[in-house]
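Comment on the following before class.
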Amino acid sequence: MKALEILKDIKYTILEGDLDVDIKDIKYDSRKVEEGDMYVAIQGFNTDGHDYIPEAISRGARVIVVAKVMKIHGDVTVIKVNDTREFLALASLNYFGHPEKDLFLIGVTGTAGKTTTTHLIKNILDNSLINSGLIGSIGIKYLDKIVPIKNTTPESYLVVKYLKEMKGLGIRHVIIEASSQAFKLKRLFGLTFDIGVLTNVTSDHIGVNEHENHQEYVKCKNKLFLNSKEVIVNNDSKYLKEVLDGVSSNINSYAINSKADLQVKEYALVNDKEIFGSVFKTKGLLEEEFKINLPGKFNIYNALAAIMVALKLGINIDKIKTSLLSLKIRGRMELVMVNQTYKVLIDYAHTEDGLKNLVATLSEYKPKRLIAVFGGGGNRPKMRRISLGEVIGAYSDLCIITMDNPRFEEISAINEDIKLGLNKVNAKYIEIDDREQAIRYACNYAKEGDLIVLIGKGHEEYQDIKGVKYPFSELEILDKIKKEINN
């Protein structure tokens, strides 16, 4: 494609060269540049793409896109724009032929519940024979493919690339986990959503490499709804007025405690051989009874959001019911039966609100004992790790502190922070640095009626230690323990 075509309807200034050049592809990672590419220098949290322009040129880049005037050596075309992240998003749409125009886009944002809600929606669509795609923290999923990604919402180029691929395979509905970071970093810039969904908003994700303050965080959430044709929100959520500031789209609501278009009139938690979840009845738009095999009140909220989307799409009620009951999500309240005497859950919760929801919910099911296996992430705020210990310790009968993703920190330093929180609530705890051994200890320690919860890793299949990601799967470890017990 000619550079001029990629630049259609984008504001720019030519600093050097001309636009009568053929472009093979667009790259934003200098290490991946090939002969004939356009290189877009974007600013990251820790690195600045402008510093790698010489490498991009040496690898064969023909066009360089910058956000600041600088001396560039090489026989290349240089284009300046105000914001290279916005440029990458818009240029990607042009390069891939605007696939979003032929797709029904559903965006889901919120502090917690995005992954579960998007998977619930996808399960309903798939069971209704509506082929759908999903872009989110567990990967990009469509048909029988799962493509791993690093972020909840990938860079704009990848979002558009996979939208085009899905469109080419006949998919017309795509659900996207729209994180606040995605809006801050312009990863969804230029997209209009047919439906925007809010699960909830709390004050998490404030800190280094996240959001400067609560106002910025909420403003980023707000961008989804300013760019959605229809909006579905949780009326029980905090900061709802701020999130919907300036939104003129049609707004529909769901709730448990507040008045809403779709409201829960009663619910019950269920823990038996068939269901570890809840049963709830709705009123308003729909008077029906639903069952979900995901525990906790917060998963009722996620189910309500999915039901609202399904109703907008005209999906049969029976299909919605069977889909809600059949869903199992990797690493999200994932139930694993190691034996018949106790239950094990794997969950990805890592924000303060998500953790509190998790352990408070599990305690409501009244296990004989709640045994929590968890660790703290490295290179994260000290107060977050103190809260981790305090929140989990307040609800658990035994805490087993172990390794999560220490990154470039020592596990001993991370654990000291966690113990400050545990000691605040006089929690009972032990330390076992090796996470596999910690899980084995929990399984050997557990007795009939106990519930073990493995917190923080969820769907991840690695441990990040000193810049290296070592293979690590809790599901595989539990499967190994199960086979050992049964042999």
